[in-house]
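Why should sequence recovery work at all? Because a backbone constrains its sequence more than one might expect. Tight turns favour small or flexible residues, buried strands favour hydrophobic ones, and helices have their own preferences. The token representation captures these environments compactly. In the example below, the structure is given first.
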């Protein structure tokens, strides 16, 4: 998203555009914003622009904050403005050879709470389910807890398989030796655009696939958003003005051209 903006509106070359946006974990991004830390990876010299490496981060594009991040903001007396800027789907993936194509919300909850442990209980083969999770405070783990489990306790750390990064999770689900056994979760944009893997497939949920139209009309159960987040104190400053632009027709068009699903 930021790469597309810099290409279109700052006149950056493709190479400079890729350098303009610094990608980090969700938790690290929230910490930088709340604690007013500079992005130490963000000093870029081009023929058009110089970014100050000491300037505090004032806008991040992320998934929803975790309870820990919300509490950190309260502790530091920082009020955040959190605005949805586009749609995405929180999806469940398995190996392409798995005979299961659909799970209900209840089945997913029971798999990740430990009540369902075999694929035969959800219409698949007689095989133990290998359910992978992400680490605490990752964007996808926060979504799993808030959007899917909704207060239902997940299996404790000593009884689950943790993937330390999104790419690792996608890879382990697609591994041949796991065959039909694995299940994990991620975001649709990530596996469609950033980290494709031909050995995985996306499961329907309640019989609904995460197609773009199903996200816009919200019939897909785990429709979610990416958010533009700023400190409220910066609402009238550059960060606030840029967030407002992202929600404008021009900004939404730029977001769509970057491969995301615009709000309108």
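From this structural description, the recovered sequence reads:
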């Amino acid at each position: 998203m930021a790469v597309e903006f810099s290409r279109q509106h700052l006149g950056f070359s493709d190479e400079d555009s890729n350098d303009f946006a610094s990608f980090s974990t969700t938790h690290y991004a929230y910490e930088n914003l709340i604690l007013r830390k500079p992005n130490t990876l963000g000093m870029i010299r081009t023929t058009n622009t110089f970014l100050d490496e000491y300037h505090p981060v004032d806008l991040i594009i992320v998934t929803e904050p975790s309870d820990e991040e919300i509490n950190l903001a309260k502790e530091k007396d920082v009020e955040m403005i959190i605005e949805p800027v586009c749609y995405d789907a929180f999806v469940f993936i398995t190996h392409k050879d798995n005979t299961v194509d659909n799970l209900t919300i209840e089945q997913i909850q029971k798999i990740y709470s430990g009540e369902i442990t075999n694929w035969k209980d959800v219409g698949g083969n007689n095989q133990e389910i290998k359910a992978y999770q992400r680490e605490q405070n990752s964007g996808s783990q926060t979504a799993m807890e808030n959007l899917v489990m909704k207060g239902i306790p997940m299996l404790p750390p000593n009884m689950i398989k943790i993937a330390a990064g999104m790419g690792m999770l996608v890879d382990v689900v697609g591994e041949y030796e796991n065959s039909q056994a694995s299940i994990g979760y991620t975001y649709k944009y990530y596996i469609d655009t950033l980290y494709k893997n031909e050995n995985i497939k996306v499961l329907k949920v309640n019989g609904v696939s995460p197609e773009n139209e199903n996200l816009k009309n919200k019939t897909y159960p785990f429709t979610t958003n990416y958010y533009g987040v700023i400190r409220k104190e910066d609402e009238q400053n550059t960060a606030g003005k840029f967030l407002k632009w992202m929600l404008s027709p021009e900004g939404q068009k730029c977001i769509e051209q970057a491969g995301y699903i615009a709000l309108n």
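A few observations help interpret the result. The chain has a mean pLDDT of 86.
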